[in-house]
Amino acid sequence: MNNEAMNIILQKIREYDSIMLFRHIRNDGDCVGVTKGLKRIIQLTWPEKHVYLIDSDTAKYLEFMGPEDDDVSDDVYKISLGIVLDTASEDRISNKKYTLCRELIKLDHHIPLETYGDYQWIEEDMSSCCEMVVKFYAAFRDELKIDSLAATHLYTGMVTDSGRFRYSDVNGDTMRHAGILLDIGIDTETLYSRLYLDTLDYLKFKARIYNQIEITPNGVAYIYIDRAMQEEMGLSLEQASACINNLDSIQGCICWIAFIESGDEKGSVRVRLRSRFVCINSIAENYRGGGHARASGATVYSREEANALLRDADALVKDYKETHEGWL
Ligand code: AMP
Asked: Counting atoms of ligand 1 from 1, which one is nearest the CA of 289?
């Protein structure tokens, strides 16, 4: 089944002279890495093809991966094969002009919320979408070309989406796929420094985060970051959103959630949910979101709705703890 999907994708890429790559809103290391990595592989393999990555949604911490392409006329979209990477549902595709493409492929590793596109390759057990593209490269390595830039893009997504190879969806294949990239040549010291070093100001923000973490009766750790705190600390939405990573190591708190007020006119609050042992995607799906079993995103529109989500998460964790052993 997966081999068939990979064969179709290779065939379609061969067929088209113009290919456009798309990814999800609120981009992250995986969706940026996979679009840039696949773009580079196609360009190296077929230098005569035109490959476009057009997206105005960028993240400061990923700027080192280089800029996106300038937009082109609708006529170019209309003759192109579109490949949407790392995006479960159409409403999350960042560049809305994907609908103009002549044919569309969905290539994703999220729990499928809906089917879109003419062809799909979904592997929801893969630790990252980048890993899927490494698998694709490995399957057709006699034909496909790769270099250390493409490998670094793909490795960036593998590292970030797997929590530095720590999450439960990391398996032997993940490491073998990462090994293929390392063999090609990656400056991991520079890459990890770019991804994980903080400024002193940001460390001070982290100190405040630790002081404000709260825990529900059954062990959901959470933090609510309002606009006032973001403004006072001079934080971008992206920087404030990164606080989710500071809640992940509390004994007994097997689910953790960050609420970040976005400051838009609708009053939306970004919700980032993470867990170990217990699956939390069902909570996200009830609050306009989705994602993975243990890493999901959602949106709420008020403090009351945030509290309702917390009550649901607390009930889920309570049930899990009462019916399972071995969690930590
Ligand atoms: P985030 O906390 O935004 O990093 O999201 C965690 C994971 O869930 C990422 O893989 C996102 O792509 C995915 N995700 C976030 N929001 C949604 C949503 N509304 N629908 C589906 N997947 C989502």
From this structure: 19
Nearest CA among 97, 149, 146, 90 for reference residue 120:
90
DSSP code of residue 85 = E
Q: Which residues does ligand 1 sit against, CB inside 6 Å?
A: 24, 26, 28, 88-89, 92, 110, 272, 289-292, 295-297
CA 275/CA 281 separation, integer angstroms: 10
Residues 6+ apart with CB under 8 A from 150: 36, 37, 40, 41, 44, 184
Pairwise CA distance, residues 239 & 89, whole Å: 25
CA of 241 to the centre of ligand 1 (A): 12
Kindly report the pTM of this predicted structure: 0.95
| C-alpha 296 – ligand 1 centre gap (Å) | 5
Ligand 1 nearest atom to the CA of residue 244, by list position: 2
Nearest CA to ligand 1 atom 15: 297
| Contacting residues for 322 by C-beta, under 8 A, at least 6 apart | none
Q: What is the mean pLDDT of the chain?
A: 97
Query: Residue 268 carries which DSSP code?
Result: -
Element (H, E) at 272: strand 269-275
**pLDDT tops 80 at residue 1:** no
Contact 271, 257 (CB under 8 A): yes
DSSP lists the bridge partners of residue 21 as 53, 83
CA–CA gap between residue 296 and residue 310 (Å, rounded)? 14
Q: How far apart are CA 173 and CA 122, in angstroms?
A: 16
